[in-house]
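Hey, I'm writing a tutorial for new members on how sequence and structure tokens pair up, and I'd like a real worked example in the thread rather than a made-up one. If someone can provide the structure for the chain below, I'll link this post from the tutorial.
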Amino acid sequence: MGFDLHLGLTVHDYNPTEFRNNIIAHSALAKLFDIPIVLTTSFETGPNGPLPKEITQMYPDAPLIKRNGEVDAWDNSDFRKAVEATGKSQIILAGITTDVCMYLPPHLVFLSNKLRWNPESKC
């Protein structure tokens, strides 16, 4: 789950308050359904910014993979290992920009029948 805070400035479908409320509500769904979470950011000290503290506080024990700018989280070996460590055979993607965060990377095509995303996760 990656909801980099500054990247949210590119969202124009909602006002900033609705956007923030939506990403926090979306994040809370995993807790409600006891779904394991892997948090990730991409270049959080740069233009994308960090995850909102409400999300990191909601999942204090979840792995937080801080990528160095990789757009595709699966390209990061730490992220890949953290996802594989959940032992789950289905993956739900969430991110801010659906055209980037939610595109189906070629290496995940083999999971296409087990890969899900929430189109509203872009908030």
